[in-house]
Specification:
CATH architecture: 3-Layer(aba) Sandwich
Radius of gyration: 19 Å
CATH class: Alpha Beta
Structural class: alpha/beta
CATH superfamily: Vaccinia Virus protein VP39
Strand content: 15-25%
């Protein structure tokens, strides 16, 4: 976006998160804004694209967030929403950990492409494309990494020891990504929708 002359804004309600973004952005000119996504400090109809990843699932009622997304987008602007997928091992583990009071992310829900698309239609958006992706590294490796960390063994964030096998597996995922059946095995799904 910035290469084509666009401005990038990052909104968060946490001062600490915004500090981290400033540090990690380096020379990238990102405008950080302190504010609430359900009551944005922006004028109506000013953005071409609004993106949120890992946000919508934390709202028991998504309507205020989606109303704000609609308000700040220009007519015909795009909303990109990325959320956890319903049919995944991650979702099962999340619900078990939430029930036991050990889930790090507070209350959280999940979606299918169909349920997310329906929600966006009710909010005056027209879905134009859906997508998804698997976790890299996989959920099983991430879980093992956490377990080993508890006993003082540090595994790398991204395992490199499998080399060609890992690369081949990622290439296979790339080919399968376009097949509808495999969308039900992905960790995260998303919908790109146009403001109507």
């Amino acid at each position: 976006m910035q290469a084509s002359g666009g401005d990038v804004f990052l909104l968060d309600y946490s001062v600490q998160s915004l500090r981290m973004i400033r540090l990690s952005a380096g020379d990238t000119p990102v405008k950080v804004v302190l504010g609430d996504a359900q009551d944005c400090p922006f004028a109506s109809g000013v953005f071409d694209i609004v993106l949120h990843q890992g946000l919508l699932e934390h709202f028991p009622s998504p309507w205020a967030l989606l109303r704000e997304n609609h308000r700040i987008l220009k007519k015909g602007g795009l909303l990109i929403v990325d959320v956890p997928q319903t049919f995944h091992l991650y979702t099962l583990m999340k619900h078990v950990l939430m029930a036991l009071g050990f889930w790090f992310g507070g209350w959280e829900r999940q979606f299918t492409t169909g349920s997310l698309s329906a929600l966006l239609r009710k909010s005056e958006f027209e879905p134009v494309r859906s997508y998804g992706d698997w976790s890299r590294p996989g959920v099983i490796y991430k879980t093992a990494r956490q377990v080993f960390a508890k006993i003082g063994v540090r595994l790398p964030m991204y395992p490199r020891y499998l080399g060609r096998l890992t690369e081949g597996y990622y290439r296979l995922q790339g080919r399968l990504r376009t097949k509808r059946l495999f969308s039900y095995t992905m960790l995260s799904i998303g919908v790109i929708a146009r403001k109507v």
